[in-house]
Amino acid sequence: MTDGAVRAWFASDGAIARRLTGYESRDEQVELAVAIERALHDREHLCAEAGTGVGKSFAYLLPAVLQATEHVGDGPVVVSTRTIALQEQLERKDLPFLHSVMPQEWSSVTVVGRNHYLCLRRMHLARREADVLFDIGDRIAQLERIVAWSSETHDGLRMELAEPVDHEVWDEVKAEHGNCLHRACKHYDACAYQRSRRRLESAQILVVNHALYMADVALRMAGAKYLPDHRVVVFDEAHHLERVATESLGLRLTLGTVLWHLRRLHPRRARRSLLAEHGTRRAIQLVDDLREIAAGFFALLEERIAAVGGRAVDLGDAPIDDPLSHFLGELVEELGSCASRIVDVDARMELQARSRGLAALAHVVGSLCRPGDGSLVRWIEPDRKSPVLRSAPVEVSAALREWVFTPERSCVLLSATLGPGNDPEFAWTRSQLGIDDARTLRLGSPFDYSRNVEVEFAEAMPDPQREADAFLRECKRRVREAVLENGGRALVLCTSWKFVHALADALRPTLELEDIPLLVQGEAPLRNLLEAKRERPTSVLIGTESLWEGIDVRGDALTLLVLTRFPFAQPDHPLTRARHRAIEARGGNPFVEQSLPEAVLKFRQGFGRLIRSHEDRGRVLVLDPRTRTRRYGRAFLDALPPGACGDDVVV
Ligand code: SF4
User: Fold this and answer.
1) What secondary structure, in 3-state letters, does 617-646 show?
2) Mean pLDDT of 432-440
3) Is 6 helix (H, G, I), strand (E, B) or coil?
4) Ligand 1 center to residue 157 CA distance, Å?
5) What is the pLDDT of residues 543-556, one digit of tens each?
6) Residues 610-632: what's their mean pLDDT?
7) Could you give phi then psi for residue 162, rounded to 5 degrees?
């Protein structure tokens, strides 16, 4: 396929324009598609930044389809998006459209994790043992709804259920690793999960999400895999990759997880249960003991957090007492002998699968309690319900270099904000991800920021570090003024939960008087907050963390964006500290090499929340004074899109 052929698809009289009402050929889109096609053809990696409105989806899907159909021997082309919702958008909208205009023969599959699929065998078992599994009548009714749905559904995916069901019910009917009879199962031919596996093996395009992709990487590192081998992968919204990889390649343990495993064997004070039916008194006693031991273990973790003022606790090289693994091991052994006495195949598999789950849990507990080889950081993370015991790689670059960004593979990374603004080669992003060589492309945004955005850097603000209380006081006053003047319609981005709550408490009475709804992250699921924001355009949404990166509120529901502080990562967080130590150990400067580029990138992402379409207009108010007071402040200014800071902006 030549550049000219790719350009022809996107031309104003091309195949896409002829079929897509309102389609406008955009130079940036064509340039991006051509660059992707060339990178795939030459088996190179490509890092490309293309702003909102460029039309990224078609620009990568079309070369992906051409690649998959012209080089069948290379295996499928994997397209990875950030969320399942974005996967669905590709599946329902963009891919069917390309099917309708492209003459090539190809098929695509949207891949989700096994646990999203219904297992017919387990569903029938759950129905048979419903009075053992569910002590609440409503859950039996939910199970019956699943049974009725199972005869209609083609894909067997939980998200397709018209009415949601409780996790406890889905847990009993979902497809599970280590709990499948494969071809020996009498439901094999009708099984949606197995059908999806067969399609997965034959499809030319696989649409996955980053979490699933990185889970596959973790599996490959352990000698297994979920996705077929492939030589081409396109990552959309690639700025999330490093974070997702950090989470997927680390471990996480909560009290809730331990109790979930135990509850599935024998709910507290239950008279009927899987164990009561097929286990022994000793097994039930072990489950009860483990509940107590786990509660005590997490209470101790909570105490350690409290001792340092509610912050995350770095576990360093010190082991922590592990009272769980031994008893988990005993329970696994006891369940093994219980299972060997069960005649019914389904019931035996069920107990064996739960026993394997406990063995895996014991492994996680052991790994988190023991110090590793120094490549992992371990820490106790405070959380609203109960502490989380976590580990993560200090750097993910080595693993990704070996397992993802290999010379044999061509990887395309796309984002509206792929790196800190003043780094045309994306050197910082590439070093974080372990990409040694790559072509790069930075496309301008199709939006006219000089006309659509007014940026104001607030004057005479206290320093957020040295005068934290005064800064907060002034933020409360300035945010209140700005929001009232704008009639709401605002998004306020903060850098800590404490700041979010303090600001929300200060704004609430005034906004109530003005009948402006206040939406605070954490007070409802993010999806609900965003729906409420769009339904009530005058509302004010306040939040931190994920709100900087991945939300899309268009039109007059968002005409004021307040960026309170520059989003530097918490310097005392164990993971941040470990990463800084690693940079120092090789003679680098952690602030220059990590803290600043990370914060500038996040600042760019936050800034990008305001203008999501050609019609969007608005004002950005930056309350952090450090663009004026610190030498590095210039990096934040330089990162803004061209034209965003008009000449009248005083800094
Ligand atoms: S083949 Fe496996 S996943 Fe499918 S119904 Fe049977 S046991 Fe369940």
Assistant:
1) CEEEEECCCHHHHCCCHHHHHHCCCCCCCC
2) 96
3) helix
4) 14
5) 998 889 877 888 88
6) 89
7) -60, -40
Q: Please, which pLDDT band fits residue 649 given cuts at 50, 70 and 90? A: very low
The whole-angstrom separation of Cα 97 and Cα 74 is 24
Structure tokens at 544: 């931190």
What is the per-residue pLDDT across 204-222, written as a single tens digit (0 to 9) for each? 999 999 999 999 999 999 9
**Alpha carbon nearest to ligand 1 atom 2, residue:** 180
Residue type, 114: R
Mean pLDDT along residues 29-55: 92
Q: Which helix (H) or strand (E) holds 504?
A: helix 497-513
- Angstrom distance (rounded) from CA 66 to CA 387: 48
Task: Name the nearest CA neighbour of 474 among 296, 633, 624.
Answer: 624
> Does the reported pTM lie above 0.85?
yes
Predicted confidence (pLDDT) at residue 19 exceeds the cutoff of 90: no
Q: Is the dihedral of CA 225, 226, 228, 233 positive or negative?
A: negative
- Which of 170, 182, 197, 349, when mutated, tests ligand 1's pocket best, judged by the most ligand atoms within 8 Å of its CB? 182
| Alpha carbons 33 and 30: distance in angstroms, whole number | 5
Give, as one character, the DSSP assignment of residue 591.
Answer: I
- 604 vs 644: CA distance, rounded Å: 11
- What are 499-541's pLDDT values in tens digits? 999 999 999 999 999 999 999 998 888 888 999 999 999 999 9
**388 three-state secondary structure:** strand
Residues 459 and 481: their CA atoms lie apart, in Å, by 14
For residue 175, which atom of ligand 1 is closest to its CA? 3
Residue that the structure tokens 């992709």 belong to: 213
Domains of the chain: 26-107+203-245+396-442 (3.40.50.300), 114-195 (no CATH), 250-393 (1.20.120), 449-638 (3.40.50.300)
